[in-house]
Amino acid sequence: MSKSVTSVTEESAYGYGIPLFDTRVNLYQGGVLAVLLVSLVTVPVWAPPWAYLFALANIWAIFAASWDIISGHTNYISFGHSFISGAAAYTTALLTFNVNPDMAIYITFPLSVIVAVVAALVFALPSLRLSGPYFSLLTFVSVLVATKAVFIFSTYTNGEMGISTVSVLTFDTTMLFYYTLVPAVIITGALLYISRSNVGKVLKAIGQNEAAVEAAGLDTTRFKLWGFVYSAIPMGIGGALLAHFYGNVEPIAFLIVDRSIEIIAIAAVGGMGTILGPAGAAYLFLFLRDEVFKAFLGPNARWVAIWSVVLVLLVLSPQGVLKRLWTFLGNLGGDSS
Amino acid sequence: MTSADTPLEVENLRKEFGGLVAVDDLSFEVNSNEILGFIGPNGAGKSTVFNCIMGVLSPTDGSVYLHSDEITGQDTHETVNQGLARVSQESNPFEEMTVEDNIRIFAVSNSPFAFSSNDDEEVIRSLARRMGLEDELGTLPDSLPHAGRRRLEIAKALATEPDILLLDEPFAGMNQAEIRDLSEEIRGFRDEGITLVVVDHNMRGLMQLVDRVIVLNEGRKLADGTPEEVADDERVQSAYLAGEV
Ligand SMILES: Nc1ncnc2c1ncn2[C@@H]1O[C@H](COP(=O)(O)OP(=O)(O)OP(=O)(O)O)[C@@H](O)[C@H]1O
Ligand SMILES: [Mg+2]
Question: Predicted ipTM?
Fold first, then answer.
């Protein structure tokens, strides 16, 4: 097979394979992907005690993939994505707590997503016109302001204790897993489609050389704005979903900047700009943190362990561990033909 | 103001960098469907003029008109969409994207809702064929030879479907055969109705190609005429240190 050494392994460098969202996937990649997907879908069957954890990981996969479509592509690094999901969760909570505890989910859910997108744009709009560092700073500030606001308006938000009037999706962990898996799969698929499309390529080009994209006749501000919307919509969905997952919305689990940093770490470990990498890394991250390290190290020391692991992985593989594995599998196919 | 005969016009353009006057009260127009040579020694201000036209730099003073509209200081993408494209002096492809996707970025429509388009595929393929890159579509720009990288830059600019194309030192670093091929290509663009401005250090290589030459020196227009007239101009010769033109 005549393949230049510098060919991009993930873009059409293979002689055979099936096209998946305009990407050639070789047999090894396809096989591993299929096994992982089947394992994920059947978690409640082969590991019932893990169903709850993986249900939570489904939501975090949504967060990581959503972050990736804007920040992983354009390199406009958002430190404030928990502000977007938090805005959605708090909208659901505030409506049920302050307006009507029986308000139907089909009203609160879409409202929450809309509020999240609008809130996100208020912060992002001015900074998207500027450069990456301003965007990072303003998104960071958005979380800090929102977290403070929860405490300032504790009459409505119930401060640190949070609001527990939100209905829980279900107490059946198997059903909980599938209720979160379905949106996770749909959203990841949709984001993967955008990433592989012309729009996703433009977002990636912006991340490499914004001036050159302008020279292509493309309004980079408008692309960044819509990239941000494509990110904020699923973030809002994930946030509202998380509210119904816990049934209690409080700042620590939903809003504080630590949550945003976790999203970034997950995306970086998975491989920025790949969508599937960040989504997959969410399962890895939560499994290590909430299952492995919690069992061996307890609820506090596990944080030290998980961040140490993230640090080591990023030093060893700055491009992202999962992306590297994917490329490795791709080259297996390339060399054998 | 521009008319149908002069699609691009620069009026009293001035650009200062701190205390340095890089372009000084420069006025010129580009005639429809001509190949205009734009020459001047190192640091004469040629690229700065182009940067001001493209909106990459905002001029200190003066105006730029494109197809009768004033475009001074306008966003680059708007100017490009009005039919003016520029190939920079330095190749700056998206290094992490294939040759194919590099051209694609310049071919796609300016809409965050246009996720796919079959037209683009056709445009990409025919431009690649035209610029001799059809076998390199899957490779990264880094593995192209110098002339190939320059050709990629031209393919990208053409993908925006310009009616005026500014080429900043397209021949730099090319050998004689490559210069001849590219000159042939440039004549072909003109035959298709594109107006061209070709920047170079000197007249060598341009003599046969251009219809008209403007000479820039220290930010000012020194001469404007046919290649023969300009080559004979004494002020031009002295600016180039005795006959280096
Ligand atoms: N961004 C900038 N900031 C400060 N000075 C600049 C800048 N760009 C250009 N200059 C200066 O302006 C003058 C004109 O530069 P310019 O690049 O336009 O010349 P040029 O004719 O294109 O030269 P060359 O043939 O070397 O490409 C030079 O003295 C250069 O140092
Ligand atoms: Mg120059």
Answer: 0.93
